[in-house]
Each structure stands twice: as structure tokens, then as C-alpha cells.
Amino acid sequence: MPSTRTIKKQIKVDGVGFTLEIYPAREGNSKTEGPFWEIFPEDYHAALFAFSNKDKLNKLIKQKFINDKVQGLQ
Fold it and tell me: What is residue 68's predicted lDDT score, i.e. its pLDDT?
């Protein structure tokens, strides 16, 4: 069953649009897992940008969105 606490947000990085989905931490078999996230490009240009700038996107998402959003749910 999907979590109803999934956070969806429209973001722009260097003028390129993405949809960010954040799945908060969950209890696993032996420990807490997550949080997890996915980004979905708005178009072909955004997909190419994401492919070329994967590390930059991951750092930005962790800094600006993951820590703030997940802490707000707790």
C-alpha cells in the first residue's frame, strides 16, 4: 500500500523543470530505511540535464528538500 505521506513538489534547477517525489523514512525489518526520493523530468531537455548533472541534482535535493521536508513530518 503506498504511503499517503508522499511529498510532491515542482522544482527548477538552472531553469530546468522537474517533479520531485519524496518518500519519508519507514520502519524496515531491522532498522529505519529512507528517506527516498525520485525526480521526474518535465521534458526531453530536462532528462538530458538530469543525466549530465546527476551528482549536482542529488546534492541539491539532499540539502534543500530532503532534510527540511522530512524533519517537518516528524
Answer: 61
Q: Give me the sign of the Cα torsion angle 25, 26, 28, 31.
A: positive
Query: Is 49 inside any structural domain?
Result: yes
Query: Are the CB atoms for 36 and 23 separated by under 8 Å?
Result: yes
Question: Whose CA is closest to 43, among 10, 20, 16, 74?
Answer: 16
The residue segments making up the domain with residue 69 are 7-73
Domain membership of residue 1 (yes or no) is no
How far is CA 32 from its chain centroid? 18
Domain count, the chain: 1
Q: How far apart are CA 50 and CA 30, in angstroms?
A: 33
pLDDT mean over 33-62? 91
